[in-house]
Amino acid sequence: MKKTLIAAASAIAFSSVASAHTSAPEQRRAELLRQRADIDAQLALLDQPQPEPAAAIGRTEPATDDIVVTGKALSLTTQVIGQTVTTVDAAAFRNTPATTVADIVRLSPGVAVMQGNGPRDVSVSVRGSNARNGFGARNIQVFEDDFPVTQPDGLARFDLTDPHAYGAVDVVRGPSSARYGNYALGGAVNFRTRRGRDIDGVEAGADVGGDGYANLYATIGHAGPGYDYAVFGSFVRADGATGHTGYETGTINAYGTFALGDRDRVAAKLIYNEGEFRLSTRLSYNQYLANPYQQGCVAAASASPGCGTISVLVNGVNGARVAQTADEGDLARNDRRTIVGVRYEHDFGPNTTWRTQATFDSRVVNQPTSATPFKGTLDSYNITSDITDRGTLFGMEATSFVGLFYNYLDNQSFSFNKTRAGRNGFGALTQTVFGDIRNMGARAREELQLTPRLRFVAGIGVERSIIDVRQTAYAYPVDATPILGLIPAERHFSNVAPEAALFWQAIDAVRLHARIGTGYGIPQAGNLFVTAAGVPGNNAGLKSQRNTGVDIGAEIALGGNLKAEVTGYYEWFSNELVSQSAGIDLLAYTSNVPRSVHRGVEIGLSWRPLPGLLPGAKLEGSYSYNDHHYTDFSERLSAGRFSTLLDRDGNAIPGVVPTFVNGRAGYDQPDGPLRGLGGFAELTYRGRYFIDNSNLLAMPGYTLVNLNLHYDPPQSGNWLSRFSLYASVQNLFDRTYVGSASVISNSLNPATGLENPASALSATTGTIYAGQPRTVYAGVKARF
After folding, report:
1. Among 117-126, 239-248, 453-462, where is mean pLDDT lowest?
2. Residue scoring higher pLDDT (75 or 335)
3. Residue-wise burial string across 372-404, b where 16 or more C-beta atoms lie within 10 A, e elsewhere
4. DSSP alpha helices (H): ranges in 100-255?
5. Average pLDDT over residues 48-64
6. Domain 48-783 falls under CATH 3.60.40.10
7. 8 A C-beta contact, residue 144 and residue 271
8. What angle do CA 689, 691, 692 make, to 5 degrees?
9. 385 DSSP β-pair partners
10. 25 has a pLDDT exceeding 70
11. Strand, helix or coil for residue 19
């Protein structure tokens, strides 16, 4: 293995010489210095009797045999210079349940995860970017194998695929629109599926757990001269701990790369996911305290205390309403997602590569999840073309990048009144939204080696966005002709995002970076048609949100025993888009906040404290602190004959968790007959946070403890080495906690004109899901 690493180091050096054959010896030395710290750390690790290292904290370089995957083009997500990046390797989660992507991304500093709409959906927030959204991901760009899975309207879903398919995830933090365009205010996340060369055959596994959880999955992979492919499939089902929650979902995920010759390469991607999901209603805080898991909530007429209900029209059109529990209404989602992508690379010469990529993404939704069911088909197309040149500029080694992009979303969506007839109870139309969203622009980037240890990075992105949609709202007065209201919205947005960074290899073990970056995000089409009352109407005056952020960070690597990162950030927002729930039977509405500030600290650690005495012992952890508050925001509330303008300056932005900590202490036997036997104890802490603009109602903090025991032996001639096992207990002490809380709106007392206190907010429905109680999982995997 050591010889392999030395050969890899030689290959890296040779590649540097070949790609910069006109460089002086000092520039050749610069390339070698950037590689030496990583190679020395890996060699030192191999000299110790310990297992394969787990997730590395900090930026990692791609392996040299990824050449067929990335060619010589500038990687979008796996080799980001001068920015805060964390890579979580599969070793950190391959012997865990990994029921959702939360089990992967929460290991990165700066990332908070919350339950979304249902037990499999996950809301992922980078630096608070998605904290006010109740499902999926907003304000970050999400990729898989460098193919986009965020649609042009800015939405990505994390219940799309099975985490067992992944080999690593890269988390890029900070405003990044110069690199990723629209909606990259918080950064980007790239999930990397396992490569065929790592699988080299067939792997099949089964996981089981509490609440009826079962996952059957398999992967086929192989690699050879000029090609690499892997195909993953799984079927997963579960009954949630909360009443009327659960899912059944199937996934196919495939990725392959093929060399067409010495200068041409192709990569292809396929994701298909379809699922049936049962959903409970979101609760008020009072309901959560009375009945967090919605037990005994079968019929509204005889429901237990604290049961959530919705109000549906008896005839589905107008007139009388009746209360229904989630079970009576059979609230559900049936969603289907298909993503197909292809990437072509051509080398014009040893230093210049042209890359073109096209992706088709179809999202078909059928969601009777509330009193206003939703159906829609949202098909999108994403095309990029760019050139990367590696050479010299002003006598210095340089990497130059320029690219064009275009994406388009066809929005065809319908909302209805719900009837009492369960999942199929679609009544009269309430609104339709037809139209499209387009984004087009250009990006440029320059990475310049100023000295052997100092690199300068500058980039810029320019984008033109168009929202051209039409809403038709339907009203049905009793004993009168239906009323149709048409609201056309054609909005044009122009955005420019520059960035600049310095990357300094201060000494072999310490990397430093300083960066200023910008981000932007236009409103979603649906935001334009919901008023502050939570009903369909004109809200088309929303503006683009923008942020400018400064990062200062350091990465430390002392041999193979200590890796650490620390980053401080300060970001200024203008016209931040804030969404709030108007109530259980109403729609969420969105408004602009003129100015706000996001700032914080992120720390990551991976440490082997006793390499000589206990070489298999390891401590890993992350700490994040977020201080996000309004600096210029006045909110008008109205009720009855009163209308009051309330000053929110200095208030914490609701939904943002200020402090969260993840820690893991584990041991893996590095040698002997028990090699591969190990386990860990994991602690997760989340601080209290507000869910309203007045900061009157706060969700309590909580601490969870997980335990894991696993046996993952290295492959050998013994047939037993083909099997790995694990057992895990999540939420060991069975703590009841708030798993998700949507931001809610403040209100006035119509009799007095005074703002309602926290006790009134505690009765506001449509906000809370309880987190998962104590659950035991076990799994087995076989390799052939």
Report:
1. 117-126
2. 335
3. bbbbbebbbbbebebbbbbbbeeebbbbbbebe
4. 102-105, 177-180, 196-199
5. 37
6. no
7. yes
8. 125
9. 356, 404
10. no
11. helix
Give the domain ranges of the chain: 48-783
746 pLDDT more than 50: yes
pLDDT bracket for residue 524 (50, 70, 90): confident
Measured distance CA(198)–CA(230) in Å, rounded: 9
What ranges make up the beta strands (E) of 32-163? 84-89, 111-115, 122-126, 141-144, 147-148
Q: Vertex 766, ends 763 and 768: CA angle to 5°?
A: 85
CA-atom Rg of the chain in angstroms? 26
Closest CA to 584 of 622, 618, 639, 534: 534
Q: Please state, rounded to an integer, the average pLDDT across all residues of the chain.
A: 87
pLDDT digits (tens, 9 = 90+) for 679-738: 999 999 999 999 999 999 999 999 999 999 999 998 776 778 889 999 999 999 999 999
Computed from CA positions of residues 580, 583, 584, 590, in that sequence, does the dihedral angle turn out positive or negative?
negative
Instruction: Please say if the pLDDT value at position 496 is more than 90.
Output: yes
d(CA 173, CA 126): 7
Query: Tokens representing 540?
Result: 């088309």
CB atoms within 10 A of CB 345: 24
Q: Write down the pLDDT at residue 49.
A: 38
Distance (Å, rounded) from C-alpha 458 to C-alpha 518? 12
Spell out the alpha helix ranges (H) of 47-154: 67-70, 102-105
Instruction: Assess contact for 203 and 217: CB atoms under 8 A.
Output: no
Residue 198 pLDDT > 80:
yes
Extract the tokens encoding 101: 């992507």
Task: Return the residue matching tokens 């950190």.
Answer: 92
CA distance linking residue 662 with residue 664, whole number of Å: 7
CB of 731 closer than 8 Å to CB of 704: yes
Residue 157, Cβ neighbours under 10 Å: how many? 22
Region at 722 (left for phi over 0; alpha for psi -120 to 50; beta for the rest): alpha
Say if CB 688 and CB 738 are below 8 A apart.
no
Task: For residue 153, give both structure tokens.
Answer: 């309207």
For 601: left if phi > 0, alpha if psi spans -120 to 50, otherwise beta; the answer is beta
User: 355 with 73: CB under 8 angstroms?
Assistant: yes
3-state secondary structure (DSSP) of residue 692? coil
